[in-house]
């Protein structure tokens, strides 16, 4: 049996790690399958994919990124037909093609010709013109659709022509939550882990810290960990913003790392002050796995991850004053939130752990392959799907 797994990225941010976990789930479900992973280029993700993939190939993909729309609509348009043809050939030659995220346009377009072989896993909540484009692609594809949250499915709508599923991302975590050590006698350690972009809200956290009285500000330490996608200018701008706001002694700006576990262990809480809707909120899930209560914007899928006052806290998106008020409460009343550590870890284990998501992905793939029993030339895949169940 041949399975193709296609991903638009090559780094190790949330959607990249989710893709790697889906590949691992497919390998566990179909141990003898030939699994080909398709990436646009080599990068950090390769190291964790190698143990599950039969091979990894690097090919140009026609990826719809906001910052590249003008180029894609002009000079890049000439290579779209070849990209769609290449995608169609892979769909034709494989029993199942799993495409991660909705922005891989060439595979979404090609899926219309072979929808019984395609599954699109959607991890983003687009807005404006991009939303209209991606919703149109999704509906055109007729492929089976996996959404990573109910918020994501609501943003795209639920087309009746496709089978749809909601599967929360499975997240690898430590064997147990780290003990809480914050008692108010040392600075509160606050972690923000994520891309440097218009969504993640690093500047909202900085504004909140800067607005605090000096005596309270001195009781907080912050790590901003992450980079900008192919944009050193944004990274430099964030570091300069920290300096210009007089926060260099309280805030460290650090590069993205393949394994963020040391940052989670350092932290007391993790903040996700997103300005725009997150489709789910992987960092908040990882925080609960490590026993670090997440402080998140009440927007998008984040409200599905964090229960306010029980496993973490909600604040209005883009509201630096509300964020500052909540941080003040956390700093001054550590005993009031000790119970959030265990509650968050339990929620992670029940809903967001790797085994839960892997079982759901494997079941969807098995069902997809079984549906091909009546299709000519698909018997090998159908037999293995039956064997694996």
From TrEMBL:
Short name of any one Pfam family annotated for the protein: Glycos_transf_1
Entry EC no(s): 2.4.-.-
GO MF annotations in UniProt: glycosyltransferase activity
SUPFAM superfamilies: UDP-Glycosyltransferase/glycogen phosphorylase
Alphabetical keyword list: Glycosyltransferase, Transferase
Domain of life: Bacteria
Keyword Cytoplasm set for record: no
Domain Glycosyl transferase family stretches: 188-335
Protein name: Glycosyltransferase family 4 protein
Organism: Mesorhizobium newzealandense
Species lineage: Bacteria, Pseudomonadati, Pseudomonadota, Alphaproteobacteria, Hyphomicrobiales
């Amino acid at each position: 049996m041949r399975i193709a797994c296609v991903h638009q990225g090559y780094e190790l941010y949330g959607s990249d790690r989710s893709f790697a976990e889906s590949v691992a789930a497919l390998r566990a479900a179909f141990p003898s399958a030939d699994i080909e992973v398709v990436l646009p280029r080599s990068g950090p993700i390769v190291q964790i994919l190698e143990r599950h993939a039969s091979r990894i190939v690097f090919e140009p993909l026609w990826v719809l990124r906001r910052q590249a729309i003008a180029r894609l609509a002009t000079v890049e348009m000439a290579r779209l037909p070849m990209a769609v043809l290449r995608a169609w050939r892979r769909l034709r030659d494989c029993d199942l093609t799993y495409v991660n995220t909705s922005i891989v346009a060439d595979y979404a377009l090609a899926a219309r010709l072979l929808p019984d072989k395609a599954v699109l896993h959607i991890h983003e909540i687009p807005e404006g013109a991009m939303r209209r484009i991606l919703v149109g692609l999704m509906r055109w594809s007729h492929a089976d659709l996996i959404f990573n949250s109910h918020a994501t499915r609501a943003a795209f709508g639920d087309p009746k022509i496709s089978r749809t599923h909601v599967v929360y991302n499975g997240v690898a975590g430590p064997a147990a939550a780290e003990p809480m050590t914050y008692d108010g006698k040392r600075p509160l350690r606050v972690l923000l882990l994520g891309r440097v972009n218009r969504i993640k809200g690093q500047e909202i956290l900085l504004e909140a810290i800067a607005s605090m009285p000096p005596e309270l500000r001195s009781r907080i330490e912050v790590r901003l960990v992450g980079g900008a996608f192919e944009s050193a200018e944004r990274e430099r701008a964030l570091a300069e913003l920290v300096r210009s706001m007089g926060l260099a002694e309280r805030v460290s700006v650090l590069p993205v790392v393949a394994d963020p576990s040391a940052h989670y262990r350092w932290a007391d809480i993790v903040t996700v002050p997103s300005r725009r809707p997150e489709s789910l909120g992987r960092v908040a899930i990882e925080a609960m796995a490590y026993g670090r209560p997440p402080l998140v914007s009440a927007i998008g899928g984040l409200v599905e991850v964090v229960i306010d006052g029980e496993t973490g806290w909600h604040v209005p998106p883009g509201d630096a004053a509300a964020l500052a008020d909540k941080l003040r409460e956390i700093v001054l009343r550590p005993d009031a939130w000790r119970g959030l550590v265990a509650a968050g870890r339990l929620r992670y284990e029940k809903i967001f752990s790797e085994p839960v998501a892997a079982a759901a992905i494997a079941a969807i793939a098995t069902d997809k392959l079984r549906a091909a029993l009546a299709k000519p030339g698909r018997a090998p895949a159908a037999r293995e799907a039956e064997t694996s169940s």
